[in-house]
Structure formats: C-alpha cells, structure tokens
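ZP: hey, is the zinc ion complex queued? I don't see it on the tracker
AM: it wasn't, my bad. submitting now with these inputs:
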Amino acid sequence: MQLQLESPLDMHLHLRQDDMLKIVAPLSAASFAGAVIMPNLLPPVDSAERLANYRRAIDAAVGDLTFEPYMTLFFRDYSEGELLTLREHIIGIKLYPAGVTTNSDAGVAALEAAESTIGRMEDLGIPLLVHGETNDFVMDREEAFLSVYDRLAQRFPRLQITMEHITTRRAVELLERHDNLRATVTLHHLLITLDDLAGGLLNPHLFCKPIAKRPEDRQALLEAALAAHPRLMFGSDSAPHPLSSKECSGCAAGVFTAPIALPMLAELFERHGALDKLQDFVSGNAQRLYGITPPPKVVRLHKEEFHIPAAYGPVVPMNAGGTVTWCLS
Ligand code: DOR
Ligand code: ZN
C-alpha cells in the first residue's frame, strides 16, 4: 500500500543552529517541502541581519533537498519602517510571553505594550504566531491564555492569528468563534496525554511546553485533525535537545518528531479511517490559510514496519526503539 503526499508542510519547527541544525534540517527536508521556522535562538532572530544569516545557515544545512524555510521573527516592538523591509522575508512574527518556554526570556512581559506593533502588523498583513501560555499552574496555562486570543481576535479583526501547538478542547472550541484565528497542532499532542509523560516512570522525551493534557483534550484535538478542520494545520513543534539536556535533572522542554512525523501521522489517520484527510491537514489548509505555494515535492510512504532509531546523532526521537507501520519511500 502506498501513500502520496503533495508538498507536505510542517507549520511549526525548531531547527536550532550549528551542529544541531546540520543534523536535524536534512531530516525535516526528507519529509517536508517546507516548514515554518521558529526564531527562539539565543540571541533571538529579531533583525534583518539575523534573519538573513539564519536563512542562509538553514539553506546550507538542507543542501540539495527541496525545502522552503518560511522564516519568522521573534516578536519585539518593530517600527513601521522595519516591518516594511522585513515583511517580504517572513511568513509571520512569533510572540512568546516572557519566560514561558525555551529561550523566551526576551519575550513579551506586558501584552498591552505589544499592541502598537500588533496593530502595525494588522495594517501590513503580517500574521501573528503565538505561544499561548500564561505563568499559571502548568495544566491551566493554555486555557488561561484563551481570553487573550479572544481579545486580540476582536481588537484586530484583520490580523491573522495562529494559536500555536494547541493542546486543549477549549482551544479547539475557540477556533470556531473567530474567523481570524487558526491553529497548529503537533503529532505528540494527538497521541499522548500527561499520563504518558508522568503517569508511570517519567519519560523526559515527552516533556514539552505546552505540557500534554487530559484524554478529553487529546480527543478533541484528534477529532479536529482527522476531519482536517479548515483552520487547523499540522505543526510538529519538533524541538530537538541533546540527550544530555533531556535525561537529567532540569530536563529541557521539547519533543523531537521531525523524522517520524509523517509515518506516524499516516498510521494515526489510517487507524481512524481518515487517510483521505491527511493531505489537507499537512498541506492544503496551510496553503490556503497563509496564501503560500510551497515548492512542488511528492513525498511517498509505503506500508512497511519502520524501526525508530534510538537516536539521531545526539537527539532521541519520540518513541525511540519503537515501530511504526508506515515508512518513507
Ligand atoms: O517544548 C517546547 N520546546 N515548547 C516550546 O515552545 C519551545 C520548544 C523549544 O524550543 O525547545
Ligand atoms: Zn515551538
């Protein structure tokens, strides 16, 4: 049995820098025609020069593989002049509330103060991508942020807002309320709950932000993904950290899924009789919502047991050592 995907896209990806970039970028480019690249480097990608340098490093790491990096800038106050010169190089600007995740200390401390830049983005048609968590109790952080999305969507009705890596039923419900809201969802949040991370022996390779939630949350995400909800896109949030930063006290947040994402999505969608929806979930919706035309690239999978490696260089993937029933051809 074969499966053919046209220009699959990963709408939320961490590629890192230097040696890590060289290891993980080709793995994404083996599966995807393009990806939205997160800017949470140290220092963050927040200037024309850093953006150009990062893009060049990604292109070099990808080599001859067809892969379009859709670049993002790290949110800060940007003048209209800056936005005018930067906008042709980016797909959007990523806003992190200060301190909520990896390398987000330079994020936004007070959202009200961010609104003048957000207004300029609305006027210039630049999408806003958001890590939607507060500093509340860890299980409640996304739901506590939903009122912020609600307010932003109303206050800036022409602004396209992406709720990144949603993890709750309430976030899926909010999607219905505003036409200018869209969302990404990860593979891991379609598969796991907090129990898989911490219900038995602790599995640091499933620890990420936002943390995996309850079975009813996973169910709502799954139903929306399997139906290829028109405002939901696949975004892996594949976030590699070296093994030494994961298997330790003070484990870094991030699940590495880039090389296994498509086989595992195929397995999941097939199990639920929804393979016909996978194309829209991994490409069609994103193309329509962002108005992008990715490079033509046919990615083929076939039915064959794939043994997930114990590691890719220094990084342990989700389900390392396990198997998946689909394989990249
Ligand atoms: O788990 C996460 N890891 N969540 C994020 O938002 C950032 C990411 C990272 O960069 O490691
Ligand atoms: Zn992320």
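AM: back. The domain at 2-328 is CATH 3.20.20.140 (TIM Barrel).
ZP: great, adding it to the tracker
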